[in-house]
């Protein structure tokens, strides 16, 4: 599985996981300028912006560690544009779904409130 295929696999796995947990998927791969948000969904009344990181190994660190401050800033920018363009005014949360998938195992970790926008 190449990197692109692994990313698609991870996003599909995350969507399946979130749906099973009762989340309602609203958007996938929502783009603003050159940046993207992987999944936008509802957890009851809370709008959840989800970044999915999938790797074949955790040897260099868990996949969620790749969501750097710079990446968080980009995600927040896309989320702000989404909220403004859709005229949405509801509580919003930023989660990460971190996945390690290879021929030996598939581990999924869902991190709620993984980061917050700077005020």
Descriptive notes:
This protein is an alpha+beta fold and 119 residues long. The chain has a single domain, classed as Trna Endonuclease, Chain: A, domain 1. Helix content is 29%, strand content 40%. Strands 1-2-3-4-5 form a five-stranded mixed β-sheet, with helices on both faces. β1 and β2 (35-43) form a beta hairpin. It is globular. The model has no long low-confidence stretch (mean pLDDT 93).
Helix- and strand-based class?
A: alpha+beta
CATH third-level topology: Trna Endonuclease, Chain: A, domain 1
Which range does the strand content fall in? 35-45%
The level 1 CATH classification is Alpha Beta
Low-confidence stretches: none
Give a short account of the largest sheet.
Answer: 5 strands, mixed
Give the total of beta strands. Answer: 5
What's the N-to-C terminus distance? 40 Å
- Averaged pLDDT: 93
Rg from Cα: 14 Å
Molecular shape: globular
Please provide the ordered H/E string of secondary-structure elements: HEEEHEE
Question: How is the largest sheet built, in terms of strand order?
Answer: 1-2-3-4-5
Task: Give the % helix.
Answer: 25-40%
The DSSP helix count reads 2
CATH architectural group:
3-Layer(aba) Sandwich
Question: How many discrete domains?
Answer: 1
